[in-house]
Amino acid sequence: MATRLATTLFRKGTRIHQVYSPTPAHAAKLAKKVQAQAVSQLGNITDGDYLYIISVTDDALPALAHSVNFPSGIIVHTAGTIGMEILAQVSPHYGILYPLQTFSATSRTTFSHVPVCLEASDTATLDFLKNIATLLTSDIREISSAERKILHLAAVFACNFPNALYTIAHNILSEHGLPFSILHPLIMETATKATRMNPHDAQTGPAFRNDLNIINTHQEMLSGTPEFRKLYELLSEAIIALHKPENLPHE
User: Fold this and answer.
1) At which of 143, 171, 189 does a domain end?
2) pTM of the complete model
3) Residue 21 and residue 60 in one domain
4) What is residue 117's DSSP assignment?
5) How many angstroms separate the CA atoms of 12 and 14, rounded?
6) pLDDT tens digit string along 188-199?
7) 54 alpha carbon, distance to own chain's centre
8) Burial level of 241, CB count in 10 A (0-12/13-18/19+)?
9) CA distance 40 to 23
10) For the chain, which residues score pLDDT lower than 70?
């Protein structure tokens, strides 16, 4: 996230003054890309009229937020589940800049159509963050901390869990000498349908049909990996439950 934010803002003409990481090599690598000063000691971060973006894991954020003080600047974090108030002691002007997207070190994901969720301590700070966000995307949304936590939960179901299932599918195919690439069209079609219609209406498969013969056959095939068999069982039960008449979505 930090790399994508810094490099994108730099390409859009923003001057990046410093890049901080407790690992000097990491700070130096990103700083070189954006022509900035690399910093590996918190005390060497310049206090001034800057925007400070904290882009670390949720569990690392509290300790970092309690270790810095930038009363002259605006400070934001990009975490999914932590409220903006954690930054109130760092600066009187604080907020959230949360891109709702998955980023990996080897991916080339861009921000151009990514929803960027903003929240701020005051109107002036919010307006400033909106101007920064326009350099990233055309999809800018004001989202409260409570709403952002809900978004993060939903994103885990929509992104992290399916990717784990892709990994399981990859392993199953690899064990039998079959390429994962054969599933690419299926994956793309499933994702496309989920964005074009209600995902509930796009559901297919043996659990949707309540085809117990196939479900039992699949579970038997997974007898050598009980953790995957249990996951298959739980997901099948969830699909069956979601498609009971009393659980159908209301218009």
Assistant:
1) 143
2) 0.87
3) yes
4) E
5) 6
6) 999 999 999 999
7) 15
8) exposed
9) 6
10) 105-107, 245-251
